[in-house]
Design a protein that fits this description.
It is a single chain. The protein is of the alpha+beta class. The protein has 2 domains: about 140 residues, Jelly Rolls (Sandwich), CATH 2.60.120.10; about 90 residues, Winged helix-like DNA-binding domain superfamily/Winged helix DNA-binding domain (Arc Repressor Mutant, subunit A, Orthogonal Bundle), CATH 1.10.10. About 35% of the residues lie in helices and about 25% in strands. β8 and β9 form a beta hairpin. The longest helix has 27 residues. The protein is elongated and about 55 Å long.
C-alpha cells in the first residue's frame, strides 16, 4: 500500500485541514509524520503519555481498554477521518485507551507541541479539531449509556448495523445491505461488553429469527430492515413476517 498524500486524501474535507488553501497544506504536513500500519500492530497503549493525536487516513483501528484479568473491551472501531488519542494540557497525562490496527491503515501522527502551534496559526483548523474531539466524547458517552441501559441483544444488533454501514478499511456510511462482517465472535463480544459464549448464544437467536446467517467466521446480514428495527429497541416479536 502506498501513502496517500494530503492533497488527494479522500477524508481531507472532514478533518481540521478542510478549510486550508492548498499553499498551507505543506505547513500541516510539516507538523506530523505519516506511516502505514499492518493489522494487529499497536499504535499506542493505554496508560502511556499522550504525546500527540493521530488522524486515521485509511483503514480501521479498534480502541479498547483492558481489565485487570487481561480481557479487552472494545470501545469503538475508528474509521477514516477519526482522531485517535487525547490532547491534555499536561503532556504527561496518559492515553485512556489502547489502539490496535484492524486492517492495513495509514495514520498521520501529530505531536502535541507542533499541533498546538499549527492550530494557533490557523483558528479555523482549531475549531474543526474541537468539533472532532467533541464528537468522540459524545460517542463515548453514548457507548457508556448503551452498556447501562440497552439489553445485550439490542447492543449486538446495533453493532452489526454500524459495522455493516462502515466496513473495515472503508469510510462509507451507506444504507445497510447484505454484507459479510470480518470480525471474530470474541471481537464482537468485546464491543458489546459480554462474554464470547453470550455472543454465540445471541447470534444463534438472530439466526433463528432470520436476521443473519453465518459462513464460517463471517456474519452475513440477511434481513437488514428487521435488524435495524431491533437495533432501535423495537421488539422483534412485534415485527410482522415477510
Amino acid at each position: 500500500m502506498r501513502k496517500i498524500p494530503c492533497e488527494s486524501c479522500p477524508i481531507r474535507d472532514s478533518v481540521c485541514i478542510a478549510s486550508l488553501p492548498p499553499e498551507k497544506i505543506d505547513e500541516f504536513r510539516a507538523c506530523g509524520a505519516v506511516a502505514i500500519y499492518k493489522p494487529r500492530q499497536i499504535i499506542f497503549h493505554e496508560g502511556t503519555p499522550a504525546a500527540g493525536l493521530y488522524i486515521l487516513c485509511y483503514g480501521a483501528v479498534k480502541l479498547y481498554q483492558s481489565d485487570r484479568f487481561g480481557h479487552d473491551h472494545i470501545l469503538a472501531i475508528a474509521a477514516p477521518g477519526d482522531f485517535l488519542g487525547e490532547l491534555p494540557l499536561d503532556p504527561m497525562e496518559p492515553y485512556s485507551v489502547s489502539a490496535e490496527v484492524v486492517t492495513e491503515s495509514q495514520l498521520c501522527y501529530l505531536p502535541r507541541d507542533r499541533l498546538l502551534d499549527f492550530v494557533q496559526a490557523h483558528p479555523q483548523a482549531s475549531l474543526r479539531l474541537v468539533a472532532a474531539l467533541s464528537r468522540a466524547l459524545s460517542s463515548a458517552r453514548r457507548k457508556a449509556g448503551d452498556l447501562a441501559l440497552k439489553p445485550a441483544e439490542t447492543r449486538l444488533a446495533e453493532v452489526l448495523v454500524q459495522l455493516a454501514r462502515r466496513p473495515p478499511g472503508e469510510g462509507a456510511r451507506n444504507k445497510v445491505t447484505r454484507v459479510a462482517l470480518g470480525y471474530s465472535r470474541r471481537e464482537i463480544a468485546e464491543m458489546i461488553g459480554v462474554s464470547t459464549e453470550t455472543v454465540i448464544r445471541l447470534l444463534g437467536g438472530l439466526r433463528r429469527k432470520g436476521l443473519i446467517t453465518s459462513r464460517g467466521r463471517e456474519i452475513v446480514i440477511a434481513d437488514a430492515e428487521k435488524l435495524n428495527r431491533l437495533a432501535s429497541l423495537v421488539s422483534i416479536d412485534a415485527i410482522p413476517g415477510d
